[in-house]
Amino acid sequence: MRMPAPEAAALAQRDELIAEFRALLGRDAVIADQTGLEVYENDGLTAYAQKPMVAVLPATTDEVAGVLKICARRGIRVVPRGAGTSLSGGALPLADGVLLGLGRFNRILDVDVANRCAVVQPGVPNLAITTAVAAHGLYYAPDPSSQIACSIGGNVAENAGGVHCLKYGVTTNNILGLEIVLIDGTVVRLGGRHMDAGGYDLMGVLTGSEGLLGVVTEVTVRLLPRPETVRALLMGFPQVADAGACVAEIIGAGIVPAGLEMMDRDAIHAAEAFCDAGYPLDVEALLIAELDGPGPEVEALIARVAAIARAAGATSLRESRDEAERQRFWAGRKAAFPAVGRISPDYYCMDGTIPRGRLPEMLGIISGLTREYGLRCANVFHAGDGNLHPLILYDANAPGELERAEAFGAEILKACVRLGGVLTGEHGVGIEKRDLMSEMFTETDLAHQQRLKCAFDPDGLLNPGKVFPTLHRCAELGRMHVHHGQLPHAHLPRF
Asked: FAD-binding PCMH-type domain: from which residue to which, for each copy (predicted)?
């Protein structure tokens, strides 16, 4: 993995840059000492670390705009960072760049119950939104397993999902408006509190853009009413492939659970030891299905799902008896990542997506790769929508194991693409999958994507080194820069 080489011209401006930032933000909001910068040297992809040249912590949209104007004028690269929970290296800093932290943007600005939306700053933790609106009988549907820590701005950057995205969608399906700051300091507002924004779907472009196009400073999120009835069903299977087949049968029957999650034996045992969720320990795979809606509908759907599970070979079936038990079922699943940390010194969390019907085939491929690379793999899946999170277990202190884990992970992602899927479901490309983009996209595809980046960031200063395996200057891609509304060579006819 390589990042853009530090530029001497940028490093030479460090002292002047720090002085200019302190004049704008105050001394406490500018971190320049080496000990302080260690906090920002990596994100959730901890295998890679690199200190930024300087870190800044603006508190207002105007301050963000001021920081970006300074960087644009000086030609300094910028890496936006939320809570730093990215598992793809999306917030990995640059040695000659500015780390722009948004942790001080931590307020819920408005809760609009009548219009079922809330206006929040990007540093607000995901779960805090639901907590803030719970008294109104509302909640924010996307719920990544890291929702207690991850920020809503990071959710927008990576288009995060969660265990309930099968029925309620990922981030892009649950936001109504954005305020963003472009690299030249221009503040742009997209959407609002209304159902649909007119014109081009620029919110769709920005959501999942991984900090390459602009910096999010405000988000209007959609709120949903809490369902009348919610029940969860645990289903244990003697074979992992049987559980995968059951997933396909449930969806094929026209049933769309609120969540449909899968764990294999290693993940089950780790989660049970970690939080005593009540999981059966004599099965090879576990499905958690959650059904919600009116009471009679939920009762009927639970019965149908249970019948499908029995026909698929389930040897264990358990329905949540109350809300506390339902929460315990999910506590084990949501704690699967930290739980696996107890059975291995390190693990490498993958994120790919396949068609649901090919889940048994994919599980067979992963099993073969564990033997080929000599590394264990605990599988935790958003099975309902085919989003896989294999956890490759390794020891970073053992020579060569990190490299084997990375090669193992790359083969999983290549297999996802071969089976008709994609490289990422919700973690983003970042640096982790950057060099695999050509497995999914042609050079022409990638060039068109980079032209879009050029429209927002003509000098390539926002989060460079991420997503694109080969960087091009915008001029190479035929970019035309419109400056203050004036076209170059205005005397030439245009068609």
From this structure: 48-226
**Last residue of a domain, which of 101, 130, 158?**
101
DSSP 8-state code for residue 422: B
CATH value at residue 233: 3.30.70.2190
Look at residue 495 in the predicted model and tell me its pLDDT. Answer: 37
Looking at residue 490, its amino acid is: A
pLDDT digit string, tens, across residues 29-74: 999 999 999 999 999 998 899 999 999 999 999 999 999 999 999 9
Among 303, 338, 373, give the residue marking a domain's end. 338
| Closest alpha carbon to 160 in 424, 450, 453, 431 | 424
pLDDT in tens, 195-253: 777 788 999 999 999 999 999 999 999 999 999 999 999 999 999 889 988 998 999 99
**Which CATH number characterizes residue 426's domain?**
3.30.70.2740
pLDDT at 483 > cutoff 60:
no
Domain around 396:
344-436
The contacts of residue 438 (CB under 8 Å, 6+ apart) are 446, 469
Q: What is the mean pLDDT of residues 376-392?
A: 92
CATH number of residue 15's parent domain = 3.30.43.10
Tokens 């640059």 identify what position?
94
Sign of CA dihedral 119, 121, 122, 124: negative
Find the CATH number of the domain harbouring 161. Answer: 3.30.465.10
CA distance 487 to 495: 14
What per-residue string of b and e applies to 247-281 under the rule 16 or more CB within 10 Å gives b? bbebbeeebebbbbbbbbbbbbbbbbebbebebbe
User: Is residue 221 one of the residues assigned to a domain?
Assistant: yes
Provide the Cα torsion 117, 122, 125, 129; round to 10°.
-10
Whole-model pTM? 0.91
Return d(Cα 300, Cα 282) in angstroms, integer: 28
Identify the weakest region by mean pLDDT among 162-171, 418-427, 467-476, 477-486: 477-486
Same domain, 325 and 216: no
- In order, the DSSP letters of 249-262 are HHHHTT---SEEEE
- The Cα–Cα gap between 235 and 247 comes to 11
Q: Can you name the residues that pair with 317 across neighbouring β-strands?
A: 235
Q: Give the tens place of pLDDT for each residue, 408-428.
A: 999 999 999 999 999 999 999
- For residue 478, what pLDDT is reported? 66
